[in-house]
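Bump. Still looking for Sensor histidine kinase MtrB structure tokens.
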Amino acid sequence: MTRDQGRTRESPAWLRRLAQGAARYAGRVSRPLVDRFRASLQLRVVSSTLIASTILVLIFSFVVAGSVTSGLLDERQDTAVEETENAAERAAEQLGTFSTASDTALPATMQRIVNELAEDPVYAPYIMLRTADGEVAKTHPVSGSAEPSAELMETVAGGKVATQYTEFDIEGDGPQPYLVVGSFIDLNIEYEIYAFYPLESQQDAIGLLRTNLALAGVALVLLLGVIAALVTRLVVTPVREAARTSQRLAAGLLHERMEVRGSDDLARLAGSFNLMAENLQNQIRRLEEMSMMQRRFTSDVSHELRTPLATIRMAADLLYDNRDEFDPLTKRSTELLQHEIDRFEDLLQELLEISRFDSGFASLEVEAVDVGRIAEDVVEGLSRLADECGVAITIDKPSRRVIAEVDQRRVHRILRNLVSNAIEHAEGRPVEITIAESETAVAVAVRDHGVGLKPGHADRVFDRFWRADPSRNRKTGGTGLGLAISLEDAKLHSGTLQAAGAPGEGTLFVLTLPLQSGNRVINSPIPLRFEQKKEAPHATQD
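Sorry for the wait, here they are.
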């Protein structure tokens, strides 16, 4: 293969790369314009109006120009044919005395006739008279290029009047448009007369018409564009104002309103929008007041209950310490009282914590800690509960320490709630804790193989005081706020807490926290994929 052949084969790929580069560059350049076009309703309306009006003006201009041009040329042709026929009759009167083409006076007579006809303003300024034998007399120079076409002369030789539109350079000023009319003179000698009519005036009239049509079309298109811009501005301006006002309302500026002008449809739209905003503001204020009252009530009740609870706690502790001196029934009652007071204190503590989240006073005490060590402490603290329930807990973590900037107390509380919840619902099956990290986040997954979650319950497990099965007997005596507080703790770290499960297959909780405080979680090292058990195929017998 030669070098030239190699270049020939490589050129299509080079051209394709060049075309692709040009297309990408054109896309980058046109993208702002396309985005602007899509974002502006007024621009789309004005552009559509301009395009449609331009097409209509072009069609109208072509139709009018074609009609006027055809009318001018047809009128000039009819007049030229009539004048040429008259010229043929006048020439026939003077040529009737010649019987043979060999007469020596014939050429001079033919030249005199065409000169007289050309000098008469009634006829064409350029005339050509010829015989069938080829004798020619004409008013324009012999070296000129004004010669009828062979088709025209053949038609005229057949005894018909024929016309032709063409361009000639008769005067040496360049090609000019002419109408050539040919007529047959039937005498002793057959003659053909051709008249050359200049079309400069018609051409000037047609050019002026086209110029005026173009100017009028441009002016009309621009006028329609301005009218479309003004009309759409009247409609789009209130819509834009409504959009800006709604954005301000969404940003929390509930006092923003639209200005009402006049009494038309747009004014009614603005009034309806303002009424909607007013009702929305009132409703939000009412909900805020109710929420504030609820938070204040929860906080006040929680604080007020601490004082009598402390007194009850002192009395209960005294009775619990001396329970061995009581009879069995009183001893059992003392133990139940101690247990319920412990649960009541947990409930008050969690209510206070919830009130801090609601009021926005919750804050983090960040420190760099080993997340794996926190999980081990949680498992160690819940080992007694796991033994009572017959649940084995395993921890799968990286070989090296996973250090994250978190609030150790809150992370410990999250994992304690998740693991204790898994132990409670594991139905004696194992609980698996998995720890993984990425470049930006750490994740802890808690998986049990117990009762699981019904469809739709995964979105409700974090609701306050919600239980999947209220009739179940509980060993831990939970308050119903543990998972809700865990979710708030995860959000406070800018992390996520997700749940998934299936009936009879168990539940999976995935806690994801950023490694550095202040960052946000984008992707979790442990995706929320709940893998269900596959049923083994039934054996068949041959």
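The two ends are 68 Å apart (CA to CA).

Edit: fixed formatting.
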